[in-house]
Amino acid sequence: MKKAMLLLLPALFVVQQLWAQCAFHNEAFRSGEYLTYNLYYNWQFIWVKAGTASMHTVLSNYKGKAAYRSSLITRGNNKVDKMFVLRDTLLCYGSLDLEPLYFRKGAREGKRYTVDEVSYSYKDGKVILHQHRLQNNGNHLNFTKTLNYCVFDMLNMFMRARSFNPTGWKKGHDIDFPIADGNSIHPAKIRYEGKTNVKGDDGVKYRCLRLSYLEDEGKGFKRIVDFYVTDDANHVPVRLDMFLRFGSAKAFLTSMKGVRHPLKSVVSK
Q1: What are the backbone angles phi and psi of residue 18, rounded to the nearest 5°?
Q2: d(CA 159, CA 99)
Q3: DSSP per-residue codes, 196-235
């Protein structure tokens, strides 16, 4: 019996190690948090109001188990539609321990419409990843991968990153995140860029942490989004700078409801 237990220990250690890596304690948000934003688009060196965005997180369930459901919806307005159509809907489910469970992104950008889906399961110390992409031409691509390491999507990654404790971080500190979409896995990272004050479209100035999201699709790491999150326990995104295929866009916070902690990052109102 002792010999059998000794043989099992390495396998048990791998399982525990995987779950320890894929799970993370939520310190930042609670069910019912609702954030809204104004979107701006850079058109021929001029920033114009492009639409709105909202992010909503609630306690839900996924396949019969309690889970957080988070959605991010962006909507361009009619004026910007003449230049570029932007309609993105992102949805994710994560366990109460912030393990990724599901992700979907439906994106209409210009004349191009695609859908990416990623679902996750965990078995015998491995991650089983199911990926699906609906291409603009109507073709469906499906993939299944079994991995020895944890992998994330952009939305589940960001929900986890909000609970990071930046105490002791120095500018340039990186955290690696392998990122999955509908047909691939890319190396990605979040980089700490220091602190700065940012004024939201709610008229409030906040002390913020600046975090950059970078992704490598085979040609080196490229900056995708800069997040400015409140320098308090909530880590609410106040401003996002997005570097897109068609140019650049920004989002500024207009309102927040249901945040978990006091807003100790407020500089002035």
Answers
A1: -65, -50
A2: 10
A3: EEEE-TTS-EEEEEEEEEEEESSSSEEEEEEEEEESSSS-
100-109/126-134 β-pairing: unpaired
Locate 203 and state its tokens: 């008229």
> Do 198 and 208 contact (CB within 8 A), yes or no?
yes
Instruction: Answer for the pair 162, 28: CB distance below 8 angstroms, yes or no.
Output: yes
pLDDT, one tens digit per residue, over 103-139 is: 999 877 767 788 999 999 999 889 999 999 999 899 9
What do you get for the CA distance between the two ends of the chain, in Å?
67
Cα–Cα dist 194/61, whole Å: 36
Quick: pLDDT tens for 2-12.
443 334 434 33
Question: How many angstroms from the chain centroid is the CA of residue 138?
Answer: 26
In eight-state DSSP terms, residue 171 is T
Cα(269)–Cα(266) distance, rounded to whole angstroms? 8
Tokens 């965005």 -> residue = 53
Strand partners, 59: 68
User: The whole model's pTM is what?
Assistant: 0.86
Comparison of pLDDT for 194 and 5, the residue scoring more: 194
Lowest mean pLDDT among 26-30, 40-44, 54-58, 72-76: 40-44
Q: 261, 231 in Cβ contact below 8 A?
A: no
In 3D space, the residue among 246, 248, 204 whose CA is nearest the CA of residue 226 turns out to be: 248
Which of 243, 230, 139 shows the shortest CA–CA distance to 182? 139
Tokens of 241: 């700078």
